[in-house]
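debug: dumping io for the single-chain case to check the tokenizer round-trip. Nothing else runs in this session.
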Amino acid sequence: MRKFLTSVADVYAYDSSENLLFTAKTLLDSSIEVSLGSTPIHGGQGNQLQYVYYHTGEMSFTLTEAQWNLAILAKTVGQSTDTGANIYVEENLQITRTVNVLSGSVVGTPLASGSTATLYGWADTDYTIENGLATYRGEFTGQALAMTCEADDTIETNDYICVRYYAADADATELVIPANIIPSSVKLVMETQLNSSDVSTNQIGTVQIIIPKASLSGAFSISMTADGVSSTPLSGMALATLPTADTTPCNDVPYYARIVENIDDANWYDDVIALAIQGGDFTIASGTTTLIVWAIPADATKQAFIVDNAEIDFVSATPGTVTVGAHTGVITYVGDGTSVVSATISSKTSIEATCTVTGAA
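debug: decoded output
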């Protein structure tokens, strides 16, 4: 079957406690790059190439979210967002003019916006805009604003101005970027479509790229243009991590990511051509032991893998010697003698493996 990885990924980020930090489902691009350094070793007459030492393997990723996503930026710089912030707000204010002073009271509560305790408000009028004059600046006393205007300004009592001032907004969301940026490390999951022209449904499954430890770069740029939309970037590098506990710890090596191809309606046993019981024939003197069953795929590019015993039917030919759990593979010594124990795929009974178990107390 011909398979094609199409479009962009959906991205999910989790912390070490599996809390979902953010999602990104409207990406413009999503890419990963694996690089590897090498050092050639030469020797002998003519300085022949004897060996190539490969090292410094790295994996990086670059994503661009079409939407504005403050949660992504927060994790990029190692921070969390807060609810409630001090921001500049605007309010329509009906004023009273007394000579060259405009006055009125705002609904909000002005705050000091600079290094002094003075509360400032700013406003333009038709006159300042038409004549290219500086914006008027006034001072608040509590919520009352007093602002000096030009003598020739035509604004009058009961007219409105749009006053801008600094105030608290309990509904705003704030991200503070520290001067000492320490980026977050997250678990990053990228999921995208797997398609094929050989089936009528087109999409045949998904591919997930799971990076257990992704160190975000701590760097981003926000580009705003008059005719464009600002996107949210995310980039970083994968960190080496050890596999979770398994039955073959001696073979464990650190890794950067797992790429998982998940075909819809596929079964793990579809291309399995044989089973093998680890260790083959053995002797048991007392107690119990658990069988480990390996499956061998027909595709030579696929590795053999350990099967979940719940997917296997186990039978002991001589239960008076040893018994076996029907779907656990737990061998229990009963008495001396021999018994052939079989392991068959429950959903594909044509595939079987056997071993001889000798009971010898």
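debug: round-trip ok. DSSP finds two helices and 25 strands in the chain.
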